[in-house]
Structures are given as structure tokens and as C-alpha cells.
Amino acid sequence: MPGTRAETINYLMGWIAECSEGVLWCSGLAGTGKSSLVGTLHEHLTVNGGRNRLGAFVRYDRTEYNQASRLIASIAYSLGMFDPRIGNTVALAMQRNRSVTGLSASSALQQFDLLLRRPLEAVSDLATEGPIVVIIDGLDESDITREVLALLFLGFGPRLPFMRLLIFSRPVENILQSFRLADQTTVSRLALDSSTEQSEYVRRDIKYFISTKFDEIYEVQLPDTTFKNICEERHVVEELASRASGLFIWAATVCKFISNWPSVKKLDALLDISIPKDAIQSVTDLYRTALDTIVSELESDDVKECILRVLGAVTVAQTPPGLTADLLDALVLTPGYDPSAQYVLEKLGSVVQSDKESGDFIRLIHKSFDHFLTDPSRCGERWFINIEDHKNKFARQCLSCLTNFLADWVPPKSANTFKKYHDNIPCHIQDYALFAPLWYIEWFNNGDFNDLRILFEDQLSLWLQLVSTAGKHHALLNEMAEVRLWADCLKDRARDCSFLPLVYHACQHAELESLQ
């Protein structure tokens, strides 16, 4: 929100302007606003500054992109796109050392030297043209190795004093350990959740955020000022800000929770939360209160079960490509028996959100909510999402949806009717269930053998005809190739998997079909 985090942004911009050959680790728990800071910093470096100084930006997300094996190559590529002079020297380095991008993590120092240090040193004019910034966001969400972590905390070195490396992450053990082992003269840390003067600015900004959002709630309710008067009498803004523990996600969730349906009951539930001892306790109490309040407003316990199913599906199936309300209706909920997904999502409005830019896919509001739901010591038995159980349950639901459709589907008999049959394939089948058993093959277990046999043997020919009618045969071959690699890996590790022969049979049959 404009008007917040000004001191922190000023500190970061000052560090970029004045630091030499350094690394800045910006750490904070989930919900402390790291991603928002990165977004604002990105804007300052690329738009507001008048001259783009952001040489490379790498963002990790455990649900979408978490592979750090190509981190150094990605930074080199971005720097090459940022400045053609750097691009030319990187390209020359790759021509001389064609195997450099395939080096293992244990050779990270050699890769760094060949793709970054030497090419940057070769462009001597860079030293007088101002800082070049490299940002890595969400490093804790990646599978980064100890060797690469140690290399990152070395920075770009004294011969490249114009380079700046900023790392944003949670203070997880492997990153914290690498930071402690690093040379503290060249590495700085900005802890967003520390009890320093910085936290005073954060508390002030959170209070400002809540106040602004509540003003918007009051405005919607005009001319009725009853809710506003109650809030002001009870100093609600101040009371809520005191419970946030420096977490912007806490403030954002609270405001969303209230704005969906402003009521004194919701206020009472929030104000009954004791001032927490730390940030983790703060979000734990908030999420429990929000979910318990949602359930207390429902007329049926069955809806609570639907809420758990929706939360479980959204948690495990965020990629690919994610779930929409329509997909939840078709794959997770039972039409005519369960309430609609839209109804459930409206109830969960304070803790889930849809990504309008990428097709209305449903996402949990924040990683901290994901962590809460999957930690039974925090969420309790009532709200615990057992990841392995929900993965298997969702995979079985997708498989059942596809096999049930195939049981009634009649393939086109001639080319003249092909388009008609294509148009009559439901969206949830064509866009999701058609390949879902392949996407989630590793979520099945030996107990699912008979169900998988229906698709991979009994309905295999019909399934391939459906894929062809949908115009997705090439996509199927790509998915089958991924599944075959998975099966080979499982076989090499001597893992017991009774349905592997079914997988190989389906892959071979699909490949033969493509040759005809």
C-alpha cells in the first residue's frame, strides 16, 4: 500500500547506492511483507529510477518453480539481456566452454567464474556506470544446495564492486547457517521481524494499513454509521494493530475477514485473541479464529466438510495449472448434494483468493496459511490438511471423473462429426481431468491398482480417442514421456509399485498410436 514501508525501501535503496561488493540478506517470517518489498523495489529500480538498474531477478515458489540447479545460468542470461555487452561476453564464454551450463552443484564455483565473474570483468566500462542489482526472491522455497548457498554469500567479489546481490527469504536453517559462516564484513542482514527500531516503523505502517481499510469499510456502509461508531468506541484499529506482531499478512487477512461481512461477532472473535508472544502465534490465532468463525456461521456441519475438501484440493493442486470454482464443482464437490464451490469460496473469502490474471485459479491467501493448515500442532485436528492423504484423494477424484465420463462417451464415427464431438467435451474433462491421472501419477498407491487398470487397460483405446478428439495427442505424448521417466526412476530405486506395468503398457500403446 502506498505510504507504507517507506523507511525500509529507503534503507534498501541506500544500501544499493552506497554498498560495495556486498550481499544483503533480507529475512523475515512468512507474512512480514518480503514479496511486497521486492515488488516495490523492482518498481524503483526499473520504472521510478529513470534508468533500469535491475540486472537480474529470480523468484522461487515451491508450487510453481523451485529448481535452483540453473540459478547461476539464469542470472547470467538475465544480465546478458540487461546489457548486450554482458550478453556478448557470456555467449563467448559458453562457446568456449559448451558444458558449463550442465555443471553440477559441486562445480558451482567454476560455473560462477565462467558465466558471471569473468564476463562481467571483461566489460571494464561497467565499473563507472553505477550499480547493477541482482535480486533473488523466495530462496527458501528452492531446492538450493549448500555449495550454491555458500557461493551466494560470497557475493560478486572485490573486483566487481558495482554488483549488488539482494536475497529475500525466510530465516530457514540452511540459509541461516550459511549466513553465519559467511564473511560478516561483506554480508549484511535486514531482519524484518526483529525487535529493532525498524519494527516501530512496521507497527506504524500496519496501523495505517488497517485504518485505511476500515475507512473503506465504513464508506461502503454509509449512511449507516453503527459499525463505525462501535469500532471507534472500542479502539478497534489500535487493538488489531497490537496483535499483528509485525505481519502485514495478518493485517490484510483481518481486513478482508471483516470487509466480507462486517459484524460485531467477528470483531469480538478477533479482539478475544490475546496479544501474541510472537509472529507465529499471531497468525496461528488469526487463522484459527477466522476458520472457526466461518464454521460457526454455517447452518450445516456438511458445509464444514466441504470447506476442508476445498482447502485440501487447493493446497495440493496449485499446479498444473490450478483449480477454478468450476473445476472444484466438477472434481471435488458433488453437484446436487454439496453446496456450490462459489458458495464455499465466498465463505473462505478472507483466506483464499482467485488470480484474475491467470484464469481465476484459486490460491491460498499466503504461504503462512499453507504452513498453518499443514502443521497439526498449530491448526489442530479440526483444520489439519494431511498432504499425502489429500494428494491421493484428489488424484482418485480426477481419475474417477475421467473414467466415469469415458464410460458413457461415444467417439466420433466420421471426420464430419469430429468438430461437434470436440465441442461437446466438457471443459473440466478437456482442460484438466484428461491428463490429471498422468500429472498426479505419483500420488496413487498400490491400493489404487484396480481403478488405474480401468483407465490404463479397459478404457485405454477410448481414452486415446478422446485425447485425439480434443486435439491433444502431442500433449499426451509429452505427458507420457514424463510419466515413463518417473516410472524408470521408481524401478531403478527398486520401489514397490504394483501398477508400473500398467503405466508402461499405456505409454507404449500411446506411442504406437502416434505412429499410425
From TrEMBL:
Pfam families: NPHP3_N. Keywords: Repeat. The keyword Repeat applies. InterPro entries: NPHP3-like_N, P-loop_NTPase. Residues 15-170 form the Nephrocystin 3-like N-terminal domain. The keyword Transcription does not apply. This is Nephrocystin 3-like N-terminal domain-containing protein. It comes from Armillaria gallica (Bulbous honey fungus). The lineage of its organism: Eukaryota, Fungi, Dikarya, Basidiomycota, Agaricomycotina.
